[in-house]
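User: Fold both of these, please.

Assistant: Here is the first one.
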Amino acid sequence: MKKYLGLILIFLISTASAKPKHDFVRIKTNKGECIIMLYNQTPKHHDNFLKLAKEGFYNGTLFHRVIQEFMIQGGDPNSKTASPGQALGSGDLGYRVPAEFRDSLFHKKGALAAARDNNPEKASSASQFYIVQGKKWSDATLDDIQQKRMNGVIVPEAHRKVYKELGGTPHLDQNYTVFGEVVQGIEMVDAIAAVEKGTSDRPKEDIKMEVSVLKKGEARKIEKQLGLKTNML
């Protein structure tokens, strides 16, 4: 009996100290909140975003560009002190993050991706990001954008199914790095996308964000809900 109790105790201790397999961040706004899982397949973007979130960089920045059925964009450092109606979107931190395109990561609804300028390497902004709202597509419209707007990039069948049933922005695939996805609170994205906009698609009402990194216990709980296994120490 003592032997079994000892084994149970070891199991419970191991489970309690299990390391989450993924990192998660929470974005809070006056339109709700969401939880985003950062992808391990894009380590440069993962680590950069996590670092900025831990430093509190994003706190007080705005979702400054919002287009319904497309995406909501934020993370411009200039937005922290922006006056009403001020044009935003050109602020940066003085460096770029190299592109990390992965065939398995695409612009489905809820995808977290990095904004960028027109640099030839398609390297990402250090801080600006967007969350996809998108829309649902038919096979015919997917065929059309595949031919006209995606420069020969083929939309895989598995992705097509998601674009038809969930929605997204397929014409951005392999052009902007996708490095995470909303796993809870997609309603926040829909709510922000629906607000009234002024010039340059900036919301007339400032939508400030607070971004925090989930602690280990909460991250493990979400992984369990998602059916993801943790890394045992």
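And the second sequence with its predicted structure:
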Amino acid sequence: MIKLLINDSKQKGLLNETSFGGLPVKVINSIMEWPKCKSCTSEMKYQGKIKTNIGLELIFMCENDPGMCDEWSPDEGGNKVIIVNNESLEYFNPENKEIGLRETEYGVKIIETAGENYDEARENWKGNKREILGSLFGEPEWIQNDETPNCDCCNKGMRFVSQLEEGPDHKTAMNFGGAGVGYLFDCEEGKTAKFLWQC
């Protein structure tokens, strides 16, 4: 069985659950600096958050100059994952909402679907395929070669967390090259996470 992430408007606006778009969260009264791209130094766009056993993993990616800031790489500074403890939470905003925020929010329900892998489960799911936002845990279905990143703390291969689709609406989709897939990894020991995409 594969855990598919399915778009569900009833799950929008939940601070401590998986969602895409909307606003990121932080622990109440904590200081959180909005991540900036290493290449262009502008604020990254918030993509969404994935709930795991080590916290909420917030994904940010530069979309200011697509293709020029190495935003597909887990290590070049064009994207960033911040892990937030799933405690008392509040939303926070970028300096520039047009740059930092997507024009949508997608809530998520997790549906276990029969299949040996993500592609098979995706085919077996009976609903609208555009409503599938990705999968949770299991094994990644690589478009290209295996690019599992190593943790910067322990130098071990990281745990696969989620495979992500661009989104159901091309006007508000995440930009993974037009037909790409995003991949989120983390390290339970180091409490770190990394993101990359392929197309």
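The chain has one domain: 2-198.
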